[in-house]
Fold this protein.
Amino acid sequence: MSGRLAGKCAVVTGAGSGFGEGIAKRFAEEGATVIIADLNTEAAQRVAGEIGKDAVAVTADVTLATDVEAMLNAAVSAAGKLDILVNNAGYTHRNGSLLDVDEETFDRIFAVNAKAIYLAALKAVPLMEKNGGGSIITTASTAGLRPRPGLTWYNASKGWAITATKSMAVELAPKNIRVNALCPVAGQTGMLGLFMGEDTPEKREQFKASIPLGRLSTPLDIANAALWLASDEAEFITGVALEVDGGRCV
């Protein structure tokens, strides 16, 4: 198959919806074999079915080492290797006071947005090193670069992800493993209502007004950025937190 990712195998977490679904479908369009990993089995199977023979659905909780190992082993089973890992799965709390977030929610945010990156690296890095290199991409957020009130603990988790990305990039460069992050502005995904507190036309217009290009992000916006970072066209790019935000962070 031809395409910018022809012959490559990618694992995308949180690929059953939103940005992850967009990334997985875009990667498949460009020739990659894609492992659709998601906590929601039905969602993962739907996306894999829509992609076709080059996709494999895997049920995975990215906060569990056993699930992460099975998810990455699925890439080896499907293609004999792992070229690309997209840490896209994310979790947040509802927009509101930092004092109103309970401990269980806080722990879940950091398990999904931070610990999962660590767990995936433990298994993915040796696989990529064996293969002569690879690309790790994490979906961070503009929240990690330009934090605003109301999402404090989520913001902090994304700041963690960006710092981890930069440190991993330097440490893994000798292994020819590139590590980058995407920083999307809020988009039309299942978490939008939580980010805004409530998803109403008024809230959307208010949020859009803070974005110079005048709209929310789309899964395709994020997918195209991920595609470039994963491709050989970006072979000299590592340690970057790429803003995909319509100018929000300016």
